Amino acid sequence: MLTLNDVQAGYGRTTILHGINVEVQKGEVVTIVGANGAGKTTTLRSIAGLVRPTSGSITFEGEPIGKLSPHEVVARGITLIPEGRQLFPFMSVRDNLRMGAYTPQARARMSATMDEVMDLFPRVREKLEQHAGSLSGGEQQMVAIARGLMARPKLLMFDEPSLGLAPIIVAQVFDVVEKIVATGVTVLIVEQNVFRTLNIADRGYVLENGEIVMTDSGQALLRDDHVRRAYLGI
Amino acid sequence: MDTFLQLVLNGLMLGGLFAIISVGLTLIFGIIRLVNFAHGELLMAGMYLTWLGTTKLGLHPYVLAPPLVLVLFVIGVAIQRFILQPLLEARDAHVQIFATVGLSTALINLALLLFGADLYATPAAHVRDPIMLGPFRIIVGQLVMFGAGIAVVTGLHVFMERSFLGRAIRATAQHRAAAQLMGVDVNRIYMVTFGIGAGCVGLAAALVAPVYPTSPTVGTYFVLTAFVVVVLGGMGSLHGAFIGALLIGLVDSLSGFYIAPDLKEVVIFGLFILILLLRPTGLFGLGRGSE
Q1: Tally of domains in chain A
Q2: How large is the ipTM?
Q3: Tell me: domain B2-117+135-278, CATH 1.10.3470, correct?
Q4: Is residue A196, in this structure, part of any structural domain at all?
Q5: Nearest CA among B291, B287, B247 for reference residue B271
Q6: Range of the domain at A201
Q7: Per UniProt, what is one GO molecular function of this protein (chain A) (predicted)?
Q8: B chain contacts of residue A79, beta-carbon cutoff 8 Å
Q9: Per CB distance under 8 Å, which residues of A are interface residues toward B?
Q10: Residue B163: CB atoms within 10 Å
Q11: Test the A interface: residue of B181, B186, B238, B284 with most A CBs within 10 Å
């Protein structure tokens, strides 16, 4: 479904990704683990069109998307739930969700999608009329995930959904991610909580200093000595 | 007392005109984060077009309002697309502002070349007819400006709150990167926003031309006042611009009578300095990205 072939990318003169290969099959849950600064976010931003790869190719459903603008990537069915929530703070939660369904395809089915998404987030339903900026960090993360689902994406990408949240909220976020995975959406997730993420992932890639050093099934990576030492502290 | 109330009435009517001009300016500032120094010259261009339409085609200025809104909208879109958007990636964001200053100078000199420095009066039947409201007297042209001001602000408010496009415009102002992730084409949003801002000026031009003589520098007077309105209301705030416009209209009218007609600008800009000193965010400004 999604293929990154020898992708190099960076900011200005700094190269972050030194030619990485990543593959996501339809219906899979794939994770990229790695330390801070390894290039996980840059990988997701390259796919989303926010960073233009300097070489290599990105294809989605057989078509190259590496040179598309972010809004064109969204129209193809790829949605990124960004790190740090990035809600529209002075808009109501309801308007934030409506913005999630901005593409013509999503807009046509907005009210049905809204009902489905609200079933997944009963707590968000109670806050629909509040300004998104007035919510707690955990509630904002739930709204950010709900907003991402409003686009009815074929591929949903999470960038650090549990970053900066209290442990009890992290557990709730993972419950939601698992529910979304259970609906059969294809997921690419980047998370600092390596243990829980590898547990729900079909496959994982280990990214170090802008290069993929290892790839295997989620369970196999959980048992791997290098991964256990470097990322699980065992 | 009657004189005072008459002056208040005049001030509110004038405020309606300031509102139409200021709303466009504050919209462009609030969404694109750009101070459009060519705003007044777009008004000037619109006023010359109104003059041409009335004298060459024999049309009433009010009939010319809808096509002028359309023409100015297209000009606005073109300015954003072909002058400002290529500068978006410039190393210094101020380059865009300099571009609008340059555009302003170019338009003034283009007008001097085409029309000379003479004042042009736009003929318009019935615009100066008085309407008596008890002891008070207003002219038709004032009433139309006031009504149009309210209509424009209300219409824009509904558009921004209720429509998908309006919501996308607000979203872009609040978080540009996140709006892109929702599938919003930010460059298109900027074009539409500049177009709407310029379209407001097109309407203002058709309404103001019959009551105020057209000259190459006519825009400066109105837009300097509009800058005061925008800062008073809170930069980027639509309803702030409306309230601000009514207040400045009142100040203009009252100080012109009670102090001296040639000193009213001193009062307005004195007020401007006071606002900047005491409440730089304006009456309704919440700071960055609040609209």
Answers
A1: 1
A2: 0.91
A3: yes
A4: yes
A5: B247
A6: 29-37+77-232
A7: branched-chain amino acid transmembrane transporter activity
A8: 181
A9: 48-50, 69-71, 74-75, 79-80, 82, 86-91, 95, 98-100, 102-103, 106-107, 147, 151
A10: 11
A11: B181
